[in-house]
Structures are given as structure tokens and as C-alpha cells.
Amino acid sequence: MARWALVSGLQGDLALYEAIQRDLRQLARVDTLFVLGDLIGPDRDANALLARLQDPRRGELAPQCIYGWWEEQLLAERGYRGERRADPLRQQFGQAAVEALEQAVDPGHLAWLAALQFGFIELDCALLHGSSAAVDDSLGPDSSPLLLLDRLTRMDVNRLFTARSGQQFRLELSGGGIESQVRDLEGQRQHQQSVPQRQVIGIGAGVRYTLYDPGSDRLDFLVAGSRPQQRARGFA
Amino acid sequence: MTHAVISCLHANLAALEAVLDDIDQRGITTITCLGDLVGYGPQPNEVVNLVRERAIPSCQGCWDEDIIEGLNSCECSYPSQLAERRGHQAHQWTAEQLSEENKAFLASLPMSLRRDRLLFVHGSPNSQHEYLLPDMDAFAALERVQTADADTLFCGHTHRPYVRELRDGVIRVRVQAPTDPQSPAEREMALPVRRIVNAGSVGEPRHGNTHATYVIHDEATGNVEIREVPYDVERTCRAIVEVGLPPVFAWRLRHGFEYAERADDASHVCER
Fold first, then answer.
1. Are strands A218-223 and B2-6 parallel, antiparallel or unpaired?
2. Predicted structure pTM score
3. Were A46 and a residue from A36, A40, A69, B135 both cysteine, which residue would form a disulfide, CB within 3.0 to 4.6 Å?
4. Which residues touch B46 (CB under 8 Å, ≥6 apart)?
């Protein structure tokens, strides 16, 4: 079965995107490229990258993109999110960052960015920037297992791929359970529920990206430009 | 301290009066209301006025929010187009009847109230529109209480009272990092004991009986009593028809169960 490449956090870096595309051409059985948000950022002009994502060159994998935290901030500031503005960005990085982000993206790209989806469901996998709760939900290997299980349950998926934390990891819910006792006007009943065998996978960001084989459940955590054919870092 | 929790009054004055009488007879002076003061029923101003007169601390329910903010709910609010049309009729009628002063009061209600480790909400800590059904995924239910930093979560919205205790929970995880894929780290999280108490509905019971429901909680013992209170159902049913609200609302009160108003998907999170 063909593999997926999962990328995030390009933040306008066309050279990085081209490096990843070069990697993917050398790798076997990679037929789908997902870009899980943060296509843009305040640090560099994102227009060339956005143009390439919308109009791939011959021989490149055509990217399937969703929006991330930085797109959410820009779209909010430009009035695409109702009354909300880029207040989280303003609070974290200041007004200068808001202005830099606006300058990084030509208005002509806004309609395309606004049409991007929150996430994809592929097979039994959710591909998201943050989580099923919010685009800014940062899930990592140290996140509360209860919270991770909740995020999986909300989407009713077996694999949740997330990018927001920027970390690469595979967290497997491997066991456990809970007792539930309900009393109502009809009486009392008890129920034992087991932890489902599900996983949350951090795909990384920027130069760190991930390959996933949905047929074998194998993951390869890669770094752009560093011997992508190497197998030692992957695991099933 | 023993306190009473009421929810989903739904503009049903006869039911509210009966429940408050029942609470008064037990000498309970602390009452918390979980919202939905209006909607479906024929006496929105009278019910809001009574809650204000009694100075009952209240959360904002989904109907209270809709009357103020306008209808913009996601598809979870109504299970069918017919139910949605009836709901919209009730919304429009209620919005026309409510005084500006009472609308301002509903707009001022908080999303949640907290007393020590007790949290009071209408639907869930996430949203006034989220249903915490008694059989929803136990881990997701626990997450709602735990993330809100509460021991006991009081909610309404489902119109069916229940007490759910979640205990003896544990989640084991295996974490693999790219730097050391062959040696996954294992850890275990012991989950705390938490409770969800649904107060049912004063003004539109849907538990299979026409009696109004609410709960009494004894903080010292932890005991929760689900109370059923009979009231003059016909008085409210007649008023529903007289003011021109859809007669099915009276039918529901006479039968005490839901009619095409059930939230089927317990895992659904409202997207509004």
C-alpha cells in the first residue's frame, strides 16, 4: 500500500518545501502529500510557496492542505472568522507580528486559504493541525492520556495525526479501563469500559516530517534532506 | 450543606412553583439553576421573574443564549426538519414575548458557576449545547469533569436526571520517539473518581413521567437524591395551546417523554 507524507510548519519556506519534494521523489511508494497547516508565518514572504502549493510543478506530489494556527490568525484578522480577530497572535507575539503576517501574504491568496478545511479523515485516521477540539490544541507525548483519548473519541478515529506541537512521536493507548455506575429513576446499572487501542501521532514541523504506511501502520520520522532512504528511524 | 439544583425550566410556571414549594418544604435555602429558563413553554416572563425574585443563581442555557444571540446552532440541535421548524416557532414566540429587562437578565447569565469543587453548567463545560448523556463514552465524560477542574459536575440539557460515578480508571500508554524507536517508554495514568449529576428538567421532563425533576445534593455525605414533583400539567398544556405554541409541546408534557428531540450521537461536539 502506498505511503503518505505528512508535513507541517513550512511557514512560507519554499526552499524547504522543494527539499521535501526532492526527498519524496527518492522515496518508494509515497503517493500522497498532506500539508497539515502553518503554510504561512510572519518571518518570510509566503507568496511563492502559496503559489506553488496551488499550482504544483510537473513531477511533484500535489499537496492536500488544511489550515493551521497561522492561517487561522491571518483569516481572523482579515475578517474571515466573523467578529474574531488575531488576538491570540497579538497576545503572544505583539502587533508587529500581526502586521508581518499580513505583509507575508498577498490578498489574492486569502480566498484559497479561507477555503482550506479544518482537517481530513482518511481511512480510520484524522489528519489535523491541532486536534479535534481546536486548531491551537497542542498535543505531545506528555499530554494527559485522558485528554488524548478524548480527542480521538471526538473524531471516532483510530489514528489522530497532529502537527501543532511540532514534535514527532507515536503515542499508543495500550491498556486500561474505567468503571461507570449510573443511577436514574429506573434504577442503577454498572458498566466497565476498556481503553480502545488507538494512537496519536505527532508528525513534526518544518524540516521534520513523517511518512505513514496505512497498510502496515509503519511510521518513518524524517528530517528534510538527510538521507530519507534510511530505514533505521522508522518503526512499525 | 444540602442544596438543590434545578434545570431546564422552559417557561413552565406551574412546574417551577411546584418544585420551589418542594424545596422550601425541605428547608433548603441554596438553589442553583442550570439554565434554559425559557423556550417551549407559555410563561417565559413569569418564570424569569420568579427566578429573579428568588435570586436563584443561574447559568445560561442554550435557549437563553439563542434568545439573546439569535439562532445559529449547528445540526445537532434538532434531529429533524420538523423538530427544527417547531423549535424556531417557539424561539420566535418567546423572543417576542420576553421583556427587554428579562432579555438583559438572560444575557447577563454566566456560562458556568463554581462552588469549591462543584461546577454547574447547562450542557457541558465546553458548550451549552453539548449533551452529556448517561451512556456517553465514560472517558470522554470524565474528561469533561477533569478538564474543568471539578469533582462533581452538575448539568442539565438532556431533560433526564441521573447520577453517574466514574471510578477505578486507568490509562496505559506506550510512547515511541524518533530518537529511540526500539525502546518505547511506558507510563500509566490513574484516573480520579469523578461524578456527573444531571438535574433533569423542571419544565419539560422527558424521563417517561410527567413529574418535574430536580436533585438535592448533600455535600457532607455526597448523597444525591433525584426528586420527582407532580404539578398541574394541564394548566401548562392549556396555556401552551391558548398562546398559539405548537400543540406537540403540550403533548410532550402530557406524556413526559421526548418526541423526536433526542441527541443520538453522544460523541458529537457542537460546532457553533
1. unpaired
2. 0.84
3. A40
4. B11, B13
Which residue among A170, A174, A185 places its CB closest to the CB of B228?
A: A185
Quick check: A169 and B176 CB within 8 A? yes
With a CB cutoff of 8 Å and minimum separation 6, the contacts of A99 are: none
Spans in chain B with pLDDT lower than 50: 74-75, 260-272
Q: How far apart are CA B266 and CA B131, in angstroms?
A: 7
Residues of A in contact with B163 (CB under 8 A): 182-184
Contact A179 B167 (CB under 8 A): yes
Beta-carbon separation of B175 and A141 below 8 A: yes
Residue A159 in contact with residue A124, Cβ under 8 Å? yes
CA dist., res. A65 & res. A17, Å (int): 13
Q: Does A190 touch chain B (CB under 8 A)?
A: no
Residues in A touching B265 (Cβ below 8 Å): none
* Cell numbers at B261, concatenated: 428531540
Rounded to the nearest angstrom, the minimum Cα separation between A217 and chain B is: 14
Rounded CA-CA distance B221/B231 in Å is 29
- What Å distances lie between residue B217 and A191, B110, B153, B197, B225, CA to CA? 24, 22, 12, 9, 6
Distance CA B4, CA B263 (A): 26
The domain ranges of chain A are 3-223
A197 interfaces chain B, CB cutoff of 8 Å:
no
Query: Do B172 and A173 make contact, defined as CB atoms within 8 angstroms?
Result: yes
Hey, is the C-beta of B209 within 8 angstroms of any chain A C-beta?
A: yes
Q: Does the beta carbon of B98 lie under 8 angstroms from any beta carbon of chain A?
A: no
Per residue of chain A (236 residues), give pLDDT as tens.
799 999 999 999 999 999 999 999 999 899 999 999 999 999 999 999 999 999 999 989 999 999 999 999 999 999 999 888 999 999 999 999 999 999 999 999 999 999 999 999 999 999 999 998 899 999 999 999 999 999 999 888 999 999 999 999 999 999 999 999 999 999 999 999 999 999 999 999 999 999 999 999 999 999 998 865 544 455 55
The third-level CATH classification (topology) of the domain covering B2-164+195-255 is Purple Acid Phosphatase; chain A, domain 2 (3.60.21)
CB contact under 8 A, B207 and A183: no
Q: Could B143 and A149 be called an inter-chain contact, meaning their C-beta atoms sit closer than 8 Å?
A: yes
Which CATH topology does A3-223 take? Purple Acid Phosphatase; chain A, domain 2 (3.60.21)
The contacts of residue A30 (CB under 8 Å, 6+ apart) are A2, A3, A4, A5, A24, A61, A211
Q: Look up residue B263 and give its three cell numbers.
A: 441527541
The answer to whether A154 faces chain B, any CB pair under 8 Å, is yes
Reduced to 3 states, what is the DSSP secondary structure of residue B218?
Answer: strand
